[in-house]
Design brief:
338 residues, alpha+beta, 7 helices, binds 2-acetamido-2-deoxy-beta-D-glucopyranose
Length: 338
């Protein structure tokens, strides 16, 4: 007993240090409607407390726990949180903006209450979309100045880009602004020379990206542009033609396959009508041919024969040939077998 009390006193005397260690507030940003798990960092060291609690903004209580009892989740948080009795973590579910605030975990260890975790939770809406538009372009033979606007619902910024020999720079460097909702709106050049309009907060971002070619078309010199145009025209035409060819081929193949499939299905259906009608739906492709071939080659022709118009489709190449072949085989086969 003395030993236990001694240990208890020892841990209590160590507690203020731990409390200081965990008194650093951890900032957490959560997208509205999502969940967050708030953990106790050294849960295994939390032995032998007489009372445990998670609080919101120091006054509201989420959940309390006393040893050898079920945790008590307060009515305001019923269904909105999950508490783990193993590690004392609490999961806050479907967070709304009003859930933003400071969440703290406390243990009471005689003789004091110690803070064991503290999180500053901020619930944010995802940011709205952005739009990057060109306001003006001025071009000379080798340079181009373009002014753009990066715009969101409640805010916008302008910026000018100057391109000389296709190498661009942003006048005045990266432009940025904090919107009324606390998000950041930025416009800048990325490493590929594209202009990026970026609207972001801690939980989301939206972008509109335009290449410098889109903003400031090249080849303002006429002869160069004509040459360039004719070369690109030829390339475009070649590409279009080859795409067309591919499309035609693919369409042809697909069409023939589909026809083949429909025809095969109709064969299968009619074949099945003879031996078993109900079971056809399950494995229509393999069974008829297997069944038929198991009987004997001659009986195959007997069954398939009457549907000459469809049989040809399994070998789509020479339509009249198999037709006449099957027709010929069919008739002598019957009398031979019987
Ligand atoms: C604590 O337990 C919960 C539920 O059992 C689990 O989801 C969570 O990951 C655990 N957290 C830690 C820090 O172990
Ligand atoms: C909780 O506290 C934060 C600041 O610490 C405050 O912004 C927020 O409005 C408070 N929430 C409630 C519901 O009291
Ligand atoms: C672009 O802007 C620079 C500096 O403002 C100016 O010197 C240059 O003449 C402009 N170029 C064009 C094509 O307007
Ligand atoms: C936009 O900004 C956010 C935050 O700085 C960043 O995470 C994201 O990658 C940026 N998007 C682009 C396309 O650079």
């Amino acid at each position: 007993m003395e030993l236990i009390v001694g240990l208890l006193l020892l841990t209590v005397s160590l507690l203020p240090c731990k409390a200081q260690g965990s008194s650093a507030v951890t900032p957490v940003f959560v997208k509205k409607g999502e969940d967050v798990l708030l953990k106790i960092m050294k849960a295994d060291e939390l032995q032998k407390f007489s009372f445990f609690s998670w609080k919101f903004n120091a006054s509201g209580i989420l959940v309390t726990l006393t040893p050898k009892a079920e945790p008590e989740i307060y009515p305001r948080y019923t269904g909105r949180i999950e508490f783990s009795v193993e590690n004392y973590s609490v999961k806050l579910k479907n967070l709304q903006k009003t859930d933003s605030g400071v969440y703290t975990a406390h243990v009471v260890k005689i003789p004091q209450e110690v803070k064991v975790a503290e999180y500053n939770v901020t619930v944010q809406d995802p940011v709205s979309p952005v739009d990057l538009t060109v306001d003006s372009v001025s071009r000379s033979s080798d340079s181009c100045n373009v002014t753009v606007t990066c715009r969101t619902q409640d805010s916008h910024i302008n910026s000018t880009f100057r391109c000389v020999n296709q190498s661009c720079s942003q006048e005045g460097g990266e432009q940025s602004k904090v919107t009324t909702s606390g998000a950041s709106l930025q416009v800048y050049l990325d490493l590929n020379g594209s202009v990026i309009c970026n609207h972001s907060n801690q939980v989301s971002s939206t972008e509109d990206i335009k290449t410098i070619e889109q903003l400031c078309p090249r080849h303002s010199d006429l002869t160069q542009s004509q040459k360039g145009a004719s070369v690109t025209m030829i390339a475009v035409i070649l590409i279009l033609v080859s795409i067309l060819i591919v499309i035609v081929i693919v369409a042809g193949v697909v069409y023939h396959r589909k026809r083949g499939k429909y025809n095969r299905e109709s064969i299968e259906n009619t074949v099945y009508e003879v031996p078993q009608t109900a079971a056809t739906a399950q494995t229509p492709v393999q069974r008829p041919t297997r069944d038929v071939s198991e009987l004997s080659p001659t009986s195959t022709y007997c069954l398939v024969g009457p549907h000459t118009g469809t049989v040809e489709s399994t070998e789509t190449r020479d339509k009249p040939l198999p037709e006449s072949l099957y027709a010929q085989v069919e008739k002598p086969a019957k009398p031979l077998k019987k």
